[in-house]
Amino acid sequence: MTRKLLKASTAAAACAVTAVTLAACGTGADGGGDGSSADPSYVSGGTFTVALNDDPGNLSPLTGVSLVQRALVPYAYESLVYTTSDGEALPWLAESWTQTPTSVTYTLKDGVTCSDGSEFTAETAAHNIAYQADGDNGTFWHNSNITEDMTASADGNTLTITSTTKNPFLLTMTGEVEMVCQKGLDDPGSLKDSTDGTALFHLTSLKAGNEYTYTKRTDYTWGPQDVTSETEGLPDTIVGKVVTDESTAANLLLSGGLNAAGVAGTDRDRLESAGLESQGVPNPIGEMLFNERSDRPTADERVRQALTVALDRASVGDLVTNGHVEEMTSLVVQSPFLCVAGGPKWTLPDPDAERAGELLDEAGYTVGSDGMRAKDGTPLTIRFLYDAGTPSHAAAAEEVQAEWKEIGVDTELVAEDPTGWSTDLYQSYDWDTGFIQLAPGTPVVLSLFFLGDTSEQGGYNFMDVQNTAYNDLATQAMSAPDADAACDLWQSAEKELVDRVDVYPLAQTTSPTFFTGATADVPWGIAPTTIRMLG
């Protein structure tokens, strides 16, 4: 799987270990979950088996940070608002809402209950927001969707969330936070290996390292798009099966041992040739970040510019995406895709090896008799990280190494495993660049990694980026009077990151989830209420 950085909370090092992504992890859909009309090929009941590319370990929606952990959260927990793949907000636990620049008021649906039969109330929803707003709890959504300046109160079935500052995205940010029932909030530790939510499914058994079984409730009536326990085509059971090897997952799909699996490597072509249906999500697999600490060569903007302009973007992009290359048009690459439309404002320079050499000369890295560059007797060596578990990364990294050698740059390639990612990015800081991706769903989430304290200071900025132009625009955007003004500022801020080469959006692809014997919508991960078994 590709190494994407997820939520950098108090477990910042753990985020790098699993290549976590701070994405909007909502469970929206395009309409496949509409319970009002059923496809004649739908067959109710049975078991839907989905591959997990790692063992989740911790099932808590409050603190789980890895991709596989977040993929399991929606099977047992729900949000106030249901966000479709195109960003439309639909009722879920809340039946309606009103907004002001500093508040959002939700009216909750009647009759919502937890999996143990207890009532889910607006008061419990307010307790969820308060828990997420408290930085001492180190939750997944803290400081991304729920900030310390937010407070929540309940009055009957009405929940009001207030921010002390203007926030044009208050509905989107608060509406997608998964709600935990009161018993789970009272004992957060219990959520590591059990569930306490309002969802259509709930955890009924687990075998750590092997499989996680969720069973459909019989009393569920409040699903998005009118989904209930009686909606035709729903499975009775969902099994998350740990399958760490993509080739094995592909074989199980073809043999009927799995109903769904994400396969993005070389086996992707094999499954497509076999006629399996798939749904994809954007994956910024070729995105490059840079270590800008003062002791690294990439602290010099001219070096960063030289390294990127020296690359044949088409060749490297083709390799890193295994022939499925797409151009990146935003640094926001996940649902709900806030502030993506109409962009980008940035453009990438054409490859120019001669210009790359000039930039390195200006930075003091001159060519020696051996054709390699050095400054004050120190060779210019770039430590380039890539994911050992992503099949296409190695070939693309070797192409980068060859192209940089042509301009006199020595490249040390480092194939990272989970421990290596954690050590290099968050402990030793011994890296310069590499295929390291962020996959946010909003520019607010993106800003956590570029705006503010470094990871040494307890912040999210593990690259030590100090881009004052970006910081100024981002600060303005956070208190913009409306969404249009905010998005214009966010796109301008994004341009500053790309122009200064704090990030290089080399290429992205669409990572598919393949299906057999079933179908579902995949806005980020599989949306459980949209799963339909096929006859």
From TrEMBL:
InterPro entries: Peptide/Ni-bd, SBP_5, SBP_5_dom. Keywords: Signal, Transport. GO terms for molecular function: peptide transmembrane transporter activity. GO terms for cellular component: ATP-binding cassette (ABC) transporter complex; periplasmic space. The keyword Signal applies. Residues 90-443 form the Solute-binding protein family domain. GO terms for biological process: peptide transport. Residues 1-23 form the signal peptide. CDD domains: PBP2_NikA_DppA_OppA_like. Pfam families: SBP_bac_5. Belongs to the bacterial solute-binding protein 5 family. This is ABC transporter substrate-binding protein. It comes from Phycicoccus endophyticus.
